[in-house]
Structures are given as structure tokens and as C-alpha cells.
Amino acid sequence: MRIGEIAALVGVTSRTVRHYHHIGLLPEPKRRANGYRVYTLRDAVLLARIRRLTELGLALDEVRDVLADDAGRELAEVLGELDADLARQEHEIQRRRQVLAALLEGPLTADAPLSPALAELLKVAPATSSPTAAKDREHLMLLEGIIGGDAVYAALRPLAEDRAVLPLYERLDELEGATADDPRIAPLAEELSAAVPDGVLAAIPDGGPTATGFEQALLDDYSPAQAEVVRRVMEQLAVRRGRRAS
User: Fold this and answer.
1) Which pLDDT tens digit goes with each residue over 210-232?
2) Does domain 3-86 have CATH number 1.20.1630.10?
């Protein structure tokens, strides 16, 4: 293969291939008597590996380290890993197309774009003018990429449909402007924590949103008394999750 052919096969430009040669990431192949480089299947596999790793967000120095670990591996093993990478990419494309299909089926709202599962969950929630309920909805949309998954949304559905939760939001609204030692905080936190089904805790992946630093940003979005309620709820839910795991 010539440089233009290997570049087209892998989906990069000839300039990119030359750049990888220049920085030593992709060894230059032997040249024919006419001066043209001749690329083999192994070169194509290596170039495809470089492209896949960069698409995953690795810097070129990090790619170099991964390729060093690949040295000596059988071609079939590397090809199998590339095939698995392509399968994951294909799955992600299908998931995104499902989201687009769901959006095209209905009117686009300010909440779009959402996954079909989350859009359905928000649809069943009763209408309310509660500011903290609206804020909770926003936080759920923000967290979609972290705790997203049909299992989480399915577990949340009973809670979303439970109209008994609305008075709890209203009580949380009433704490706007209150101090963090308000006597209403403890009982409200207890009731909010108790309202969360065990299925939700089981469906959330290990680490959850706390692993991203989202927890502190979430608390900062509330007034002092409201933040104290939310903090206690998160603590109580963490304890419940720990009991389930033990």
C-alpha cells in the first residue's frame, strides 16, 4: 500500500501519517527503488490502533506508552482488540441514533436532548411549581451522563410518580433563607431519604456522582438550610447503600 491508500483505509490523512513518522510514533516502512514507501497490514493495524487511542482522548505520549506495551503481541490479538473497539463505537452510535429518533418523534423542548429513558421519566412526574423540584429535575438531567442507564430511571419511576413527594419539595422550598441549624432540617432529611426506593440505590453505579466532584457543586446550588438537608440525605443514602453491600 502507498501512503494515500493506508491513510484512506484507516480514515486519516496522509499528512497525519507523515506527522506520526516525524515524531517516531509510526515507524517508516521500507521504500522501493522508486522512493515510494510500501505499507503492510501490520502498518495499517498500528496506524488504526493509534487513531483509536487518540479518539479515546489519549495524548500522543500516552499513545506511545500503550504501543510500547503492545510490542511483541500477536497480530490476531491486536486485531481482536481493534474489533472490540469498533464494536463499542458502533454501540455508542446506535445509542445516539436512538436518542435522536426519540427527539424526532416528539416536539423539541428546552429539556432536549435527553435519552428516551430519562425523557419518559420526566414525563410521568407530576407538574409542580416548586423551585426545588425544578432544580432537582435540572440536576437529574445534568447527571445523565454519570448515572445514566435504564435501570436507574426505571427504579426512579415510582418516586417520580409519587405525589406524596411534592409536599416534601414544598417543605424544602420553605427553608430558603433559613440557617443551617433550623429544627426543620433533620425530620425533612429523614423523610426525603426514606422516600428513595432501595432499587435506586442498587441501580446507581459504584462511585456515583460523588466521584466526579459533583456533590459539593450540588450543595453550593442550595441555600444553607436546604444544602444541609441535601447533605444529610446523601449521607443517609450512602449508609443505606453500605448496608446493602455488606
Assistant:
1) 544 567 777 888 999 999 999 99
2) no
